[in-house]
Amino acid sequence: MTFYKIVKSKLKKHQIAWDIIAKIARFYPEQMFKKIPSEIVIEPTNACNLRCPVCPTHFAMTRKRGFIDFNLFKSIIDDFENKKTKPRILMSFAGEPLLHKDIDKLVKYAHQKGCSTYISTNATVLNRKLSRDLIMGGLDSIHLCIEGITKKSHEAYRIVSKFEEVKNNIENFVFLKKQLKTKTPLITIQTLLTSFSEKEINKIISWARSIGANAINLKSLSMGTYTTDEMKNKYGYLLPSKKFRRKKSKINKTICTVPLRQAVVYWDGTLGLCCDDFDGIIQLPNIKDKGFINTLISPNVIKKRKMALLKKYDLCQKCSLGNTDFYGIDINFDDKSIPHISPPKHPE
C-alpha cells in the first residue's frame, strides 16, 4: 500500500475528513459525470421465483414485472462499440436473472463485444444445459447463493427453494467448469449470515473450497430499510448474533461515489439512480429514445446523479451500502489455508 493510500484510509476514519470532502464535492464538475461508469447494471428481469421474507423484490416493489428485450440489451452494449474501455456488465438486480429465457445469449453478446459479465443467482434453475451455455458464452464471474449447508438453514430464508436441488446445481456447475477446462467464470459461493447459517460457517467454507469454488462471500442479513416494524418483529429471529450483524458506521459518510462508477438500467429501459433504488423512486428517463449514453449524460440525469453523490436523497441517508462498516466476510480460496471463524461467544 502506498503512502498516499495509507494516509487516505486513515483520514476517512475521522469525521472532519468527511466534512471537508462534502464541501469540496459541491464543486465537483458536472463534466466528470460524462465519463462512462466502470459498471453498468442491466436488469434481465425484476421477477423472482422465490419468496424470501425480507427481500424488497417480494414485498415492496411496485414496478411492473417484465423481462428485458434482447434488442434493447444489444443497444446498450453497442453504445460502447467505439469505446476503448468497456464497462463491466452486471446482469443482476431486483429479480432472478436466470429466469430470462435468453440469459445465455445476453452473456454471449456482451462477451463478444468485449464487456466482462457478472451474474448473481439463487441457482434454482441452473440446469446442466444452462450452465454449459453460460460458461461457454464467456461469463466472467458468478455468485451462487446458498444459505447454509443444511436444509434447515437454507430453507429458513429461501422460501420455495429446495436445498438439495440448489446444492446439486452448484456442485454440478463447478464440476462442469472443471470438465470444460475454463478459467472463467470465477465462482463465488454467497451465503447469508442468519441465526441458522452462522452455526455452519466453517462447514460451508470447507464445502465451498472442496468443490472448487474460487471464493466465498458470507453476507450479513439485514432487515433492510423497507421493512415495517411488524415485519422486523416477525422475522427478527433470522438475524445473526451481534458478532455477525451489519455494523452501522459511527462516521457520517457525507458522499457516495456509486453514481460516478455505476449506472442502472431496469428491464424496460428506464434508468435507475443506483443499486439501492430498486423501485425507481428517483424518477429518471427511459433510454429507448436517445440511447443509453446520451440519456445518462443528459443535463437532467447528471443533476440527479450529482445530488446522489452529495447524498441529498432520503434513500441515500437510509442506504446500508453507504452507511455501514461491516457487511460480512469475504474469503479468497487462492490462500492455502482454510480460515477458521469462531462462533459467537454469547449467542442471542
Would you tell me the overall average pLDDT?
Answer: 91
Strand order of the largest sheet: 9-8-1-2-3-4-5-6-11
Biggest sheet architecture: 9 strands, mixed
Structural class designation: alpha/beta
Count of helical stretches? 14
Q: Give unreliable regions as ranges.
A: 344-348
What descriptive keywords fit this protein?
alpha/beta; single chain; globular; 348 residues; nine-stranded mixed β-sheet
Q: What is the topology?
A:
Layout: H1 3-11, H2 15-25, E1 39-42, H3 56-59, H4 70-78, E2 88-90, H5 103-112, E3 117-121, H6 128-136, E4 141-145, H7 151-157, H8 163-180, E5 186-193, H9 201-211, E6 215-220, H10 229-235, E7 247-248, H11 258-261, E8 262-265, E9 271-272, H12 292-296, H13 299-309, H14 314-318, E10 324-326, E11 328-332
Parallel strand pairs: 1-2, 1-8, 2-3, 3-4, 4-5, 5-6
Antiparallel strand pairs: 6-11, 7-10, 8-9
What does this structure look like?
- By secondary structure, this protein is of the alpha/beta class.
- Helices cover about 35% and strands about 15% of the residues.
- It has a nine-stranded mixed sheet with strand order 9-8-1-2-3-4-5-6-11. A two-stranded antiparallel ribbon has the order 7-10.
- Helix 5 packs parallel to helix 6 (about 130-135) and helix 6 packs across helix 8 (about 165-180).
- The longest helix is centred in the middle third of the chain and has 18 residues, at about 165-180.
- The model is unreliable at about 345-348 (pLDDT under 50).
